[in-house]
């Protein structure tokens, strides 16, 4: 990213200004003669110097626009990288949440597997019903006053 153009352009001074100063310093020249060429010279040089200044300003503006475009491009790349990193982090967070849910489901599945199965529940309920009926009959037969008077 080397810039081949000079970093700063200075205005060039004409030798005409030095001549008018030298002319006013000589005693043989009259002030009227010095004033007339001095007034005509800046008027003639003004459009050229203004055009030069305008060209320099345009060059500087173009360089600033190029720098702005480069900085916008680098900013866009940084934003893209930041967005991709944040997406990856959210995916990792979701994966860790999924891993936690999976481990919880595995724990619940192990607990359920240790519970008795459906046939065991049917047998235990039938056994409880039979034992309750037998106990009720025994209480009614051998202790008649204990249940319902």
Give a structural overview.
The protein is an all-alpha fold and 149 residues long. The chain has a domain of 34 residues. Helices cover 80% and strands 0% of the residues. It has three helices and no strands.
Low-confidence parts lasting 5 or more residues at pLDDT below 50? 18-36
Overall average pLDDT: 77
Overall number of strands: 0
Helix/strand order: HHH
Using the CA coordinates, give the radius of gyration: 52 Å
C-alpha end-to-end distance? 109 Å
Oligomer state equals single chain
Q: How would a crystallographer describe the biggest sheet?
A: none
Question: What shape does the CA trace take?
Answer: rod-shaped
Explain the layout of strands and helices:
Blueprint lengths: L15 H10 L5 H84 L3 H25 L7
Helix pairs in contact: 1-2
Short description:
The chain has a domain at 116-149. It has three helices and no strands.
């Amino acid at each position: 990213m080397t810039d081949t153009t000079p970093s700063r352009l200075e205005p060039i001074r004409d030798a005409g200004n030095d001549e008018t100063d030298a002319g006013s310093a000589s005693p043989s020249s009259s002030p009227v003669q010095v004033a007339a060429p001095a007034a005509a010279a800046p008027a003639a040089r003004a459009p050229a110097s203004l055009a030069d200044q305008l060209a320099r300003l345009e060059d500087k503006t173009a360089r600033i626009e190029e720098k702005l475009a480069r900085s916008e491009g680098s900013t866009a790349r940084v934003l893209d990288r930041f967005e991709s990193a944040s997406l990856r982090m959210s995916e990792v967070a979701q994966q860790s949440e999924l891993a936690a849910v999976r481990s919880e489901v595995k724990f619940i599945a192990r607990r359920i597997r240790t519970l008795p199965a459906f046939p065991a529940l049917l047998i235990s309920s039938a056994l409880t019903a039979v034992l309750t009926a037998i106990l009720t009959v025994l209480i009614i037969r051998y202790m008649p006053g204990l249940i319902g008077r």
